[in-house]
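Subject: 3-deoxy-manno-octulosonate cytidylyltransferase structure
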Amino acid sequence: MSAQKDSLKIIAMIPARYQASRFPGKLMQDLGGKTVITRTYEAAIKTKLFHGVYVVTDSQLIFNEITEHGGKAIMSKKEHECGSDRIAEAVEDMEVDIVVNVQGDEPFIEKESLAELLSVFKAKDAHQIDLASLKTAIETEEDIVNPNHVKVITNKNDYALYFSRSPIPYIRNKEATITYYKHIGIYAFRKKALMDFYHLPMLSLENAEKLEQLRYLEYGKNIKMVETNLKTIGIDTPEDLEKARKLLAN
């Protein structure tokens, strides 16, 4: 067990809602002979970074899929609008320090990026960090304008200033050199920040963009962003699933 695991109890939670708005049932779709949710669960286990990995779901179908393959799953007791709320309910009575939210539709997560994410809780500014997440440079105009690819801007110390489905920043000065960053929806929360989120109401920015991470910013939480070269495929649409199948086949 690593030194990091000796000092902090770290678990991974995979929120898995069956009725996704853009692609209902996507987590149970076939991806190279296994379901999307099973591949994501196995990828999280394979990293060996966690004391435990759990799928937390509102679906008996997904619950059975994980448990029948020897995995750990938790059924939500309440209805939840976002993954953070679903995870918070599940961990409320657990003795943990850091909770990593691995999106159920991210089957290509790998150890290096998750280890980089967790390393911030050992950095000199760790006491300032309520949660951390990943970003990666966007290379195409198509991805910059795609509202399904959430963009993030940060300050000079890599703390998030804002997340948006719109391209941010707006480039008025055409001579400015700007790199756009895509937010990869993998989070590492301090348990307190997660529980605070759970008990605070949604505010206007989160409601407008339908991005739960904005609730943390609106209530003054510090989100540390970690740049990664991970070129993951989050499965939001049937087209994304086809891309994932091609990537897996190569």
